[in-house]
Write a structure and sequence with these properties.
CATH superfamily of one domain: P-loop containing nucleotide triphosphate hydrolases
Subcellular location: Vacuole membrane
Largest sheet: 6 strands, mixed
Shape: elongated
Radius of gyration: 38 Å
Oligomer: single chain
Keywords: ATP-binding, Membrane, Nucleotide-binding, Repeat, Transmembrane, Transmembrane helix, Transport
Pfam families: ABC_membrane, ABC_tran
Family: Belongs to the ABC transporter superfamily. ABCC family. Conjugate transporter (TC 3.A.1.208) subfamily.
CATH topology of one domain: Rossmann fold
Distance between the termini: 131 Å
Strand content: 5-15%
Membrane topology: Multi-pass membrane protein
Number of strands: 15
Helix content: 55-70%
Low-confidence stretches: 49-54, 124-161, 386-394, 594-605
CATH class of one domain: Alpha Beta
Length: 1091
């Protein structure tokens, strides 16, 4: 058997022909198996549905596409075709796979973050190494740049949101809202784009090595003469440091500009009421000018860096060719060798350009990394403490906490959602809370009841309604400790009484809970268990009411002074009157007993021509870079100026219907795109368009037959762009729209962080941020996938042009003599392939008398809504004091807004001193009227700016106004004086002090017509009396229109205007209205306990 096998193997059984046949058959089998293997890659593996959590949407096509489709991005074609046929909708896209969700990425980030924190504990602050770790974490799961690209945004945003919710006051005070918005938009965008570039940069060393090796085969050791490029390193290092410094300054000014825009949007009503648009336009320009000055300095650096890197390939080419010719006289640089070398140098040009771009963008990214890093390492709150708006220190409180801030915080959600605040809906409990918070009648007046959606910052609720919704939220939460920061100041007296009796007081629903009430209402003091008296930020006295009165200290003396001064004023409620009387008697008795007590290079001609050509190229490059970048800065300036002007001139209904987050997205991320990203892309378009044009001319002049392929390819190029652009534009639009809720949530979180923390809703808000980011990432990923689809298809067409150029030159060479230089030239180029109306201004000094006449006036907030004022007509005489009263929804606020034309007339007119206000410019109207709003609004900047933004008044008048507003005493101990920094939104002043600043502002303007909207609700009892006295004396000869919630403040007015359901029901003197027991005013006075 063994011998037979040996004979079979080594004998003559296997002939040479048989071996060849066997090898052929084996080759056919191997090829068939390989072809089958290739064909199998076109089939898709099944994907487990557990990877997705939203069965109502299809999974991402990328996860179910074949391998060739994955490589070529063919799976995006269906989406691009849909966008070409019709407008895309959100439901046309897919769901986000679990590996790309925030729930997967954020924990990974925090693990890496904690490791970095532990590594840097011995340092004063952590370095930027966490970004490297984060990139490693991302790239460990995905090697494609597009994956990490989309993962970067959810990686950064939720941690920022976490920090916003957990940072303490010191961190918050050192970080403005504008800076936080810029970090979430501009800085995150810079880091994300750099992460994408890193993967393209990884191919740079390979391209350089390949190009150098091939060049060495042509030029030999002469190539090393190009090592002169190392001398560029120190220059580039210096330029990089300068670029980094300018970028830091640029982002600093961007923070200030976005912060200012945020303040403007939050207080746009006040700005329009005071006609301060021009002042804030100037303030925006002052910051923008500083930003542009830095950008112009960056232009000079960019021009030098552009010259250095654009000339680098020329220097390498020049030194190599010169060294090749000079080093040995026998060396001949033929046209064929020259163009082969040029082709290789072009290969080398691409990585050098990429490296130059990476230097600039990496510098920008590291600046962004440092900014975000500084923010993330900021101190957080103690998890067992609740931090309040204090300069330092924390209050540690046991048990769950409910917090009602003095300025009610309302979310952009329904009334019910604001009350529930994440708690489950229990009908009986909810109904009870609504009843005890006096919200039943208000909900009846709302178009959809408690399911009515409340606009941003509670725009469609009155101040009292917002405060009661805030209180209802606290009650519904059923917590252990209730922190009530003066919740009764914004409501009517009878509503305040009911709230105290039914909710806060000893017999209210919260009687078994710990309640800390901050109040200016002295009549509640006898009904509380303990009183803490604060003075100059310290506790001056503490004890029960009886103890403090019997002690006859500063508290008792201050209380007696107040009660004595208001003893003759009518009190709206008999019960309150009795309480105040008993309090005064008790104080008198104590004082009685105790008494009283703060291209061929072988010839020198060709070398010289080559050198001269590149010399002029260098001059052109310097001029182009300098002119181009400066013009782009000026273009960005013009666009921003138009944006700011348009924004400040929009009517109020635009701000009522447009989310603040959307506007901030325009002024932050979009402006930065115009400043930084758009110039790079426009330059790329110009450079590449020129290159393509020159390439076509050269190829066609050398090898005209190439046109048989070139022109069809150009047509395909055109149709690819035409096919791609509609989808790309729509995806960018939807991506931007879905990003807006993130900015809205950010601002809600910033303004209501105390409430969110107090109610323990931090995790819920964090989850909400993650959901918004995940939803936005679907469109973000689709946008960049579609761009990759276009890039792949265009690269394929470019390769086809290069192949055709070379192929046709080879075909031509077989039939005729073809110059090698022409062939090389062809292939090497293929490788590159109504504010003020002048005619209708009011008379000088208008208005002089102050007569206001409404004539059949009708208005609505915007088209499609019901009328809010229904043909009202009345006349207010010059110098008359008129109180405007009415229940919630009567139209009192609408009347005020109409007077300042924040809402325009649908019919009728308003005449002031014989001038129809609709016929004059808005600035002329609003600058001649004064309003003291209910909510005091201040801006970042000095006290001087908040009083006099146009610098119209001398310091003496400013101090006089502050003194008459009873605020000078609080400023005497402040060394800055009028230059005192009021802080962001006036945060360095109390709410009461802010109202006094607004009063001083009104005293400075001293116009003939003054409108008051319950201007003293947020001040203490003594200041209230002083303000009322100041108003009566300082505006004695003025026409005063007061929107009153407390009837006792207007009982001495000349006439009372009673409104109901948008109509004037009564208009007469108080006594005349009270004498008619059937009048609405009589019933209101009776309900208030005045009669």
């Amino acid at each position: 058997m063994g011998e037979n096998f040996k004979e079979f193997c080594g004998g003559e059984f296997w002939q040479q022909d048989d071996v060849q046949d066997l090898m052929f058959i084996t080759g056919i089998v191997i090829f068939s198996l390989q072809l089958l293997s290739l064909l199998l890659t076109f089939f898709v593996d099944s994907v487990s549905s557990s990877t997705y959590t939203q069965p109502e949407k299809p999974p991402c096509p990328e996860t179910r596409c074949s391998f060739p489709s994955f490589l070529t991005f063919f799976w995006v074609t269906r989406l691009i075709l849909t966008g070409f046929k019709r407008d895309l909708r959100e439901d046309d896209l897919w769901q986000l796979s679990r590996p790309e969700r925030s729930d997967t990425l954020v924990p990974t980030f925090f693990k890496l973050w904690e490791k970095e924190v532990d590594r840097c504990k011995s340092r004063s602050s952590s370095s930027g190494g966490w970004l490297e770790n984060a990139l490693k974490g991302a790239s460990s799961k995905n090697t494609g740049s597009k994956e990490v690209l989309t993962e970067s945004t959810p990686l950064f945003l939720p941690p920022d949101n976490k920090t916003v919710l957990t940072m303490n006051n010191a961190t918050r005070n050192s970080t403005t809202a504008g800076k936080i918005v810029n970090m979430m938009s501009v800085d995150v965008q810079q880091i994300m784009e750099r992460m994408d570039g890193i993967f393209f940069g990884l191919t740079t060393p390979v391209q350089v090595i390949v190009a150098v090796v091939m060049l060495y085969q042509v030029t030999g050791p002469c190539l090393w003469e190009s090592a002169c490029l190392v001398f560029q390193v120190p220059l580039n290092a210096m330029l990089a440091r300068m670029q980094k410094g300018y970028r830091e300054k640029n982002l600093h000014f961007k923070d200030g500009r976005v912060k200012l825009f945020g303040e403007i949007l939050n207080a746009v009503k006040v700005i329009k009421l005071y006609a301060w648009e021009q002042s804030f336009r100037n303030k925006i320009w002052d910051i923008r000018k500083k930003e542009l000055d830095v950008m112009l300095k960056m232009v000079n650096v960019n021009a030098i860096m552009g010259l250095v890197w654009d000339m680098a390939p020329f220097l390498v080419t020049l030194t190599t060719f010169v060294a090749f010719v000079v080093s040995d006289r026998t060396n001949q640089m033929t046209a064929a060798d020259a163009f082969v070398s040029l082709a290789y140098f072009n290969i080398l040009r691409s990585p050098l350009n990429t490296f130059a771009t990476m230097i600039v963008t990496t510098i920008q990214s590291f600046v962004s990394v440092e900014r975000i890093n500084q923010f993330l390492v900021g101190e957080d709150l103690d998890s067992d403490c609740v931090s309040h708006d204090s300069a330092s220190g924390t209050d540690c409180t046991g048990g769950s906490i409910a917090y009602v801030p003095q300025q009610a915080w309302i979310q952009n959600a329904t009334v019910r959602d604001n009350v529930q605040f994440g708690k489950p809906y229990i009908r009986t409990k909810y109904t009870s809370v609504i009843k005890h918070c006096q919200l039943e009648r208000d909900l009846e007046l709302l178009p959809a009841g408690d399911m009515t959606e409340i606009g941003e910052k509670g725009i469609n609720l009155s101040g009292g309604q917002k405060q009661r919704v805030s209180l209802a939220r606290a009650m519904y939460s059923e917590n252990d400790v209730y922190l009530l920061d003066d919740p009764l100041s914004a409501v009517d007296s009878h509503v305040g009484k009911a709230l105290f009796k039914n909710v806060i007081g000893p017999e209210g629903l919260l009687k078994d809970k710990t309640r800390i009430l901050v109040t200016h209402g002295v009549h509640w003091l006898p009904m509380v268990d303990e009183i803490i008296v604060m003075q100059d930020g310290k506790i001056s006295e503490r004890g029960s009411y009886d103890y403090l009165v019997s002690n006859n200290g500063p508290f008792a003396q201050s209380l007696k002074t107040f009660l004595t001064e208001v003893a003759d004023d009518p009190v709206e409620d008999p019960e309150m009157a009795a309480i105040e009387k008993n309090m005064l008697e008790q104080l008198d008795s104590v004082e009685t007993s105790k008494g009283s007590s703060h291209d061929d290079l072988s010839s020198s001609f060709s070398s010289g021509r080559f050198l001269l050509l590149n010399y002029f190229s260098a001059i052109f490059l310097v001029a182009f870079n300098w002119i181009y970048w400066r013009r782009m800065v000026y273009a960005a300036q013009e666009m921003h100026s138009k944006l700011a002007n348009r924004l400040l001139r929009y009517p109020m209904n635009f701000f009522d219907t447009t989310p603040i987050g959307r506007i901030l997205n325009r002024v932050s991320r979009d402006v930065d795109t115009v400043d930084s990203t758009l110039p790079v892309h426009v330059k790329g378009v110009l450079v590449h368009s020129s290159t393509v044009l020159v390439t076509i001319i050269v190829i066609m002049s050398v090898s005209p037959i190439t046109g048989a392929v070139l022109f069809p390819v150009i047509l395909v190029y055109y149709f690819c762009q035409k096919f791609f652009v509609p989808t790309s534009r729509q995806l960018k639009r939807i991506e931007s729209v879905t990003r807006t809720p993130l900015y809205v949530l950010l601002f809600e979180t910033l303004t209501g962080a105390s409430s969110v923390r107090a109610y323990g809703a931090t995790d819920r808000f964090r989850e909400q941020a993650k959901n918004i980011v995940d939803h936005n990432q679907v469109f973000f990923f689709a946008t960049h996938a579609s761009v990759r689809w276009l890039q792949w298809n265009l690269d394929f067409l470019s390769s086809l042009v290069i192949f055709s150029a070379g192929l046709f030159e080879i075909i031509s060479s077989s039939s005729s003599e073809v110059d090698a230089g022409n062939a090389g030239l062809s292939v090497s180029y293929a490788l590159q392939a109504d504010w003020i109306i002048p005619s209708q201004r009011p008379p000088t000094g208008w208005p002089q008398q102050g007569e206001v006449c409404f004539q059949d006036y009708k208005t609505r907030y915007r088209e499609g809504l019901d009328l809010v004022l229904k043909g009202i007509g009345f006349t207010i005489k010059p110098g008359e004091k008129v109180g405007v009263v009415g229940r919630t929804g009567a139209g009192k606020t609408s009347l005020t807004l109409s007077l300042f034309r924040l809402i325009e007339a649908v019919g009728g007119s308003i005449i002031i001193d014989g001038v129809d206000i609709s016929s004059i410019g808005l600035h002329d109207l609003r600058s001649h009227l004064t309003i003291l709003p209910q909510e005091p609004v201040l801006f970042s900047g000095s006290l001087r700016f908040n009083l006099d933004p146009f610098d119209e008044y001398p310091d003496v008048q400013l101090w006089t106004a502050l003194e008459r507003a009873h605020l000078r005493g609080a400023l005497d101990d402040i060394s800055e004086g009028l230059d005192f920094d009021c802080g962001e939104e006036g945060s360095n002043l109390s709410v009461g002090q802010r109202q006094l600043v607004c009063l001083a502002r009104a005293l400075l303007r001293k116009t003939t017509i003054l409108v008051l909207d319950e201007a003293t609700a947020a001040v203490d009892m003594e200041t209230d009396t002083l303000i009322q006295t100041t108003i009566r004396t300082a505006f004695n000869n003025c026409t005063v229109i007061t929107i009153a919630h407390r009837l006792n403040t207007i009982m001495d007015y000349d006439r009372i205007l009673v409104m109901d359901a948008g109509e004037v029901r009564e208009f007469d003197a108080p006594k005349a209205l009270l004498s008619d027991k059937h009048s609405i005013f009589y019933s209101m006075a009776k309900d208030a306990g005045i009669i």
